[in-house]
């Protein structure tokens, strides 16, 4: 594409005029189809390769929905979702499957996203096996080591771990496939403050080491400020602010961003935690 | 912090586990009695002796030493008939419960996971099926396809699959909402693989609990069909036919009716209690 707006880094994700709506079952008339609620109202954005982009907004702003479109758990109603030059917005599940190795996700609630019936090593190894990238117990142990969990965790079940440990397993599963993109959806919102800091610094280290592109969804700007390179502020399905973290935080363009900035609790997270 | 020391909890005997062990004890006893019936039964269950008809059990005056639980109106040994009756009861319960369970659970899993038209068709079928009174349905069915154990098993599976389909459908729908299903999709799993290796292990405890319950139900249905003479030939010793025969003589030979009834009661109770206990035992979170 020869566009005057081409960003300095090549964009891994390029999204144009993304629309998405859900049926509003609560207001369904007695007969006929339910009205639709527009969740994403024409988003256009780029996620540059190798950078961590924060997606922030209040609940109901559409940030999780946007995330789920990126990893194609949801399909857009209209618009283009281009990943690495390929429009993935309209692909069906069979066509998506080979691409999914590069599009990983860490979930908000690890208790729900880790199958309670499977041992930790199997949770990590199974996707590797499906993509023929190993999948032995030893491969799973290597991934566990990268997230700082000792071998003894391999044979535990998810409910035998603490929240922070579970989230590390979630990270291990995502990075084990050596993807190019990881979506992190509110991954620390269920954790206590010290586990939060540990999980965040782990994610940051891994992302930089592996050259990952990360979309980090959060409602907490203080977390975004310390972790992310860029930030996108969503409100009611529209982008109200975006740019490098520094710029957005110092010169917020919209009232929404200002309100979110004012909501940052003090004392602030210490920068040294991420070193 | 990361805790490196970990050892699995040892199996401990708890009072709560009595709910598991007591039914298991009864069922194992029953299985041993059924398998080794020729060894344990003191008499031929079919041997009639009109000289020894309606002998009372051992604790009542006038009993014969060889007939521990007395004899029926044809002089057949009640205990021996009960032991041989356990064979039929257990055979029917295991085969019928598993056929019912596999058939009903498969439909429940499909309806709950694939949804859409699958769910609509299967759910309507369940609704229609449940509108029939089950016992009447069973009686009609056996009357049409003929008597015999195979018919009884077939009838149970054909009638009671809805129990599995309903419960497993609901359970599958709950599990399908869990993030681990999306995780599997992100991890490249096909839909069928997700259903079988992610969802099925999570609904398996419910299937096992229902299986045990269904075994109890199968024993009852077999007894009911024996009672109305629609199971196997009335000479063959089944608990249902013993109850049926004992009914006529309840005023002067109550033991003919009571002992098989107790066996039936204990067996059904054991199966349903075992089902609940097993469900808890198989759940790694509850355990």
List the helices and strands and how they pair.
The complex is a heterodimer of chains A (275) and B (287).
Chain A: E1 11-23, E2 36-48, E3 52-57, H1 63-70, E4 78-83, E5 86-87, H2 93-100, E6 103-106, H3 110-113, H4 120-130, H5 137-146, H6 163-176, E7 181-185, H7 193-210, E8 213-218, H8 221-227, E9 230-235, E10 238-244, H9 245-250, H10 255-262
Parallel strand pairs in A: 3-8, 3-9, 6-7, 7-8
Antiparallel strand pairs in A: 1-2, 1-4, 4-5, 9-10
Helix pairs in contact in A: 4-5, 4-6, 5-6, 6-7
Chain B: H1 18-35, H2 37-40, H3 78-114, H4 116-130, H5 134-145, H6 149-176, H7 179-186, H8 191-227, H9 239-247, H10 255-282
Helix pairs in contact in B: 1-3, 1-10, 3-4, 3-6, 3-8, 4-6, 5-6, 6-8, 7-8, 8-9, 8-10, 9-10
Number of strands of chain B: 0
SSE topology string of chain B: HHHHHHHHHH
Helix tally of chain B equals 10
CATH architecture label of chain B: Orthogonal Bundle
The number of distinct β-strands of chain A equals 10
Q: Name the beta content range of chain A.
A: 15-25%
End-to-end separation of chain B:
25 Å
What can you tell me about this protein's structure?
The complex is a heterodimer of chains A (275) and B (287). Chain A has 275 residues and is α/β, with parallel strands linked by helices. Chain A has a single domain (50-74, 92-274), classed as Rossmann fold, CATH 3.40.50. Helix content of chain A is 34%, strand content 25%. Chain A has helices at 63-70, 93-100, 110-113, 120-130, 137-146, 163-176, 193-210, 221-227, 245-250, 255-262; strands at 11-23, 36-48, 52-57, 78-83, 86-87, 103-106, 181-185, 213-218, 230-235, 238-244. In chain A, the strands form 2 sheets. Chain A has a 6-stranded mixed sheet with strand order 6-7-8-3-9-10, sandwiched between helices. In chain A, helix 4 packs across helix 5, helix 4 runs parallel beside helix 6 and helix 6 runs parallel beside helix 7. Chain A is globular, with a radius of gyration of 19 Å. The two termini of chain A are 38 Å apart. In chain B, helix 3 packs parallel to helix 6. Chain B has a single domain (70-282), classed as MetI-like (MetI-like fold, Orthogonal Bundle). Helices cover 68% and strands 0% of the residues of chain B. Chain B starts with 17 loop residues before the first helix and ends in a 5-residue tail after the last helix. Chain B has helices spanning 18-35, 37-40, 78-114, 116-130, 134-145, 149-176, 179-186, 191-227, 239-247, 255-282. Chain B is mainly α and 287 residues long. Chain A binds chain B through residues 71, 73, 93, 97, 100-101, 103-105, 107-109, 112-118, 126-127, 130-131, 148-150, 152-153, 156-157, 159-160, 165, 173, 177, and chain B through 2, 4-6, 178-180, 182-191, 197-198, 201-202, 284-285.
């Amino acid at each position: 594409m020869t566009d005057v707006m081409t960003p300095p880094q090549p964009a891994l994700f390029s999204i144009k005029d993304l629309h998405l709506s859900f049926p509003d079952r609560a207001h369904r008339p007695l007969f006929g189809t339910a009205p639709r609620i527009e969740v994403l109202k024409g988003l256009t954005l780029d996620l540059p390769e190798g950078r961590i982009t924060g997606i922030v907004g209040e609940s109901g702003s559409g940030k999780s929905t946007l995330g789920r479109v990126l990893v194609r758990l949801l399909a857009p109603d209209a618009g283009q979702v281009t990943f690495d030059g390929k429009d993935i917005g309209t692909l069906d599940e069979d066509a998506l499957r080979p691409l999914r190795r590069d599009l990983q996700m860490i979930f908000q609630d690890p208790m729900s996203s880790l199958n309670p019936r499977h041992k930790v090593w199997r949770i990590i190894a199974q996707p590797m096996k499906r993509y023929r990238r190993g999948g032995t117990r030893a491969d799973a142990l290597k991934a566990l080591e990268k997230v700082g969990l000792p071998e003894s965790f391999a044979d535990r079940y998810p409910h035998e771990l603490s929240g922070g440990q579970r989230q590390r397993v979630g990270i291990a599963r995502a990075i084990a496939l050596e993807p190019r993109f990881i979506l992190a959806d509110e991954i620390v919102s269920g954790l206590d403050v010290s586990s939060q800091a540990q999980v965040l610094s782990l994610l940051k280290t891994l992302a930089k080491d592996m050259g990952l592109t990360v979309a980090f969804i959060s409602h907490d700007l203080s977390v975004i400020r310390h972790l992310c390179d860029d930030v996108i502020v969503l409100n009611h399905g529209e982008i109200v602010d975006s740019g490098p973290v520094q710029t957005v935080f110092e010169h917020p363009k919209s009232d929404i961003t200002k309100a979110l900035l004012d909501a940052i609790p003090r004392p602030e997270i210490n920068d040294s935690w991420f070193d | 912090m990361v805790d490196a020391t970990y050892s699995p909890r040892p199996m401990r005997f708890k009072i709560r586990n009595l709910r598991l062990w007591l039914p298991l004890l009864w069922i194992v006893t029953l299985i041993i009695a059924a398998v080794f019936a020729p060894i344990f039964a003191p008499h031929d269950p079919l041997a009639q002796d009109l000289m020894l008809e309606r002998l009372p059990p051992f604790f009542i005056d006038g009993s014969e030493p060889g007939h521990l639980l007395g004899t029926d109106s044809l002089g057949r040994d009640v205990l021996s008939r009960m032991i041989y009756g356990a064979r039929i009861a257990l055979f029917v319960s295991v085969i019928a419960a598993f056929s019912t369970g596999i058939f009903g659970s498969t439909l429940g899993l499909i309806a709950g996971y694939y949804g859409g038209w699958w769910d609509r068709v299967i759910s309507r079928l369940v609704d229609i099926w449940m509108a029939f009174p089950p016992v009447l349905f069973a009686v009609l069915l056996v009357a049409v396809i003929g008597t015999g154990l195979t018919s009884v098993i077939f009838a149970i599976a054909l009638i009671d699959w809805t129990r599995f389909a309903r419960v497993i459908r609901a359970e599958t729908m709950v599990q399908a909402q869990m993030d681990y299903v999306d995780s599997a999709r992100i991890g490249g799993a096909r839909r069928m693989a997700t259903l079988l290796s992610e969802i099925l292990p999570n609904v398996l405890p419910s299937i096992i609990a229902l299986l045990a319950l269904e075994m109890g139900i199968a024993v009852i249905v077999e007894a009911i069909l024996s009672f109305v003479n629609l199971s196997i030939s009335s000479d063959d010793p089944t608990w249902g036919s013993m109850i049926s025969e004992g009914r006529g003589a309840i005023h002067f030979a109550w033991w003919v009716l009571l002992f098989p009834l107790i066996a039936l009661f204990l067996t059904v109770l054991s199966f349903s209690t075992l089902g609940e206990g097993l469900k808890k035992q198989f759940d790694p979170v509850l355990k």
